[in-house]
Amino acid sequence: MNDRPLPTLFELTPLNEAFRVDPHGLLDDLRSRCPAHADPVSGSLVLTRYADVRAVVNNRELWRDPVRAEEGAVLQRRLIAETDLSKPRTSTTSILMLDDPDHARVRQPLSQALYARVAKFKPEVERIVDEALDRFPAKGEVDLMAAFCVPIPIDVIASILGVDHDRLAEFREWSEGVIQGLNPLRTPEQTAQMEAASEALSAYFTEAMEDRRARPRDDLISDMVQLQAAGAPLSDDELRINLTALLVGGNLTTTDLIGNAVRLLLLNPAELAKLKADPGIINAVVEETLRYEPPVDITGRIVSGDLEVGGCPMRAGQAITVSLRSANRDPEMFDDPHRFDVSRKHKPHVAFGGGSHICIGAPLARLEAQVALTRLFARFPDLKLADPDATPAWRTLPFFRGMERLPVIV
């Protein structure tokens, strides 16, 4: 009988060195021993099996907004610790945390405009990627995160929104600050950084929306104020918050998707050889990266009524935390799950969540990764890790997986 204590949810973050080095050592053990367990530290039911995780993220009856969580749901309540609950929720949070009917009301016009932009945006993404590659030295060492993976997603979303080129440096700085909104374990200093960046972005979008009403451009901000003028039921607050959310949701995660993919391909030369031989398999490469080393660890839901989850009876207000990372390596779903295999027969991963809250930026993230990887290896076919045996410099931001640095030789 195995009586070792189960790891708490907070031990399943990169703040724990064992998890940071090898998350699957802990996740495999947890999934095999107790795939659905009540975690007293986070105050939630933690699920690690693919079948349970997929059922939860696709269940449209469950709630997303942490204000609906019971007081004992520690992790969920931390997300609203600095929120003014006297204000309407649509004035204090984005579609990331909203429930219907507000979630559907706000998401529909935003996704309509965003997806129309993404559908014709490949040439602009190619331009941005090529400009980043042009700045590389002819030969020598480069930190791929700083030179490539970090700037590309910020510059892409800035271009979609219509940010003036001379404001890009400020925009990048604000983007880094607001990312702390996704860190429920942030320090007071990180909270201050987040709040300052949020205020600056709010002021920026207020000014930009007024400008686009007077002088429309070919950009997403213009699209949104025009939809609003045509009758889309969106307030200015809702526009500002959700335009900001596109930054938060897309920058860090797409940075990590690109960085993780490059590292995996360089560590698996046979898989990289497949891509070089046939760049047409790039979609499969990106999907296998999302399965094998997704940027996001977890997501959550709130129980909306009495039901059974993972064999556990639950009541309204109780919190569920699902491990997307564990689900994507579940051997019940994926053969040889710990092997990075770009030829793998496709089965749906859960890296983008699911249901009505499936990541709104998924099409853009996929496009950016596809363009970035194909053009990087076309330009630098002999790219290699500066030190293949070095311990990866994984970031310690809870519930995300990406590198601080990725030194390569071009």
TrEMBL record:
Gene3D superfamilies: Cytochrome P450
UniProt name for this protein: Cytochrome P450
One MF term in the entry's GO annotations: heme binding
Role summary: Cytochromes P450 are a group of heme-thiolate monooxygenases. They oxidize a variety of structurally unrelated compounds, including steroids, fatty acids, and xenobiotics.
A matching Pfam family: p450
Keyword Cell inner membrane set for record: no
Signal peptide coordinates: none
Keywords, comma-separated and alphabetical: Heme, Iron, Metal-binding, Monooxygenase, Oxidoreductase
